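Morning run. Coffee first, then this:
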Amino acid sequence: MTPDTIVHLGSEALKMVLLISAPMLIVGLVVGVIISLFQAVTQIQEMTLTFVPKIIVVFVSMIIAGPWMVATMMDFTRHFFELIPTLLQ
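And here it is:
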């Protein structure tokens, strides 16, 4: 196993982490911006107004994207297991 192979496997793992976490991060970002705009317009500065909706929306997006996330992780893991014999040479 060469250092190039290790770097390639590590970069693939990082790409997978970013791909799997993207739905929750994007939804949380959009909801956070909308709530911030709402707070700026109405001048309401309640701290729970920012956290509770984001937590709920991120949880719902996790439920919706869950099957896709699991399938993507399983494909990635299966690909890594298939690479093991070629890495040992």
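Residues 3-87 form one domain. Good start to the day.
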